[in-house]
Amino acid sequence: MKKFFVALAIAGLMGLLLLVAGTAQNKGCFPWQTAVTTGGGAFSEGDRSQRFCR
Fold first, then answer.
1. What's the rounded Cα separation, in Å, for the pair 22 and 15?
2. pTM (2 decimals)?
3. What is the C-alpha separation between 40 and 6, in angstroms, rounded?
4. CA 28 to CA 19: how far, in whole Å?
5. Which of 5, 26, 29, 42 is most open to solvent, judged by the fewest CB atoms within 10 Å of its CB?
6. Where is pLDDT greater, at 4 or 47?
7. Helices and strands in the chain, H and E counts
8. By mean pLDDT, which of 14-18, 20-24, 35-39, 43-47 is the weakest?
9. What mean pLDDT value characterizes the chain?
10. Vertex 32, ends 27 and 35: CA angle to 5°?
11. DSSP secondary structure, 9-26, as one string
């Protein structure tokens, strides 16, 4: 039974690691969300683009 809990803990840590890696690659959004950038076009001065998750 102890081996089962160790395997479950390792699987949980691997899942958490994949979630963090997917979030980092998706510009701060969860992997199942879409990163949407608004503003900050080529001709905008001082208007910084903002990123939202949807």
1. 11
2. 0.72
3. 48
4. 11
5. 42
6. 4
7. 1, 2
8. 43-47
9. 88
10. 35
11. HHHHHHHHHHHHHHHHHT
Which residue type sits at 20? V
Give the residues across from 53 on adjacent strands: 35
List the structure tokens of 23: 């979030």
- For residue 35, the cross-strand partners are 53
The SS3 assignment for 27 reads coil
Strands 35-38 and 50-53: antiparallel
- Alpha carbons 50 and 16: distance in angstroms, whole number: 27
Q: Output the six-digit token pair for 3.
A: 């081996």
What are 48's two structure tokens? Answer: 């910084």
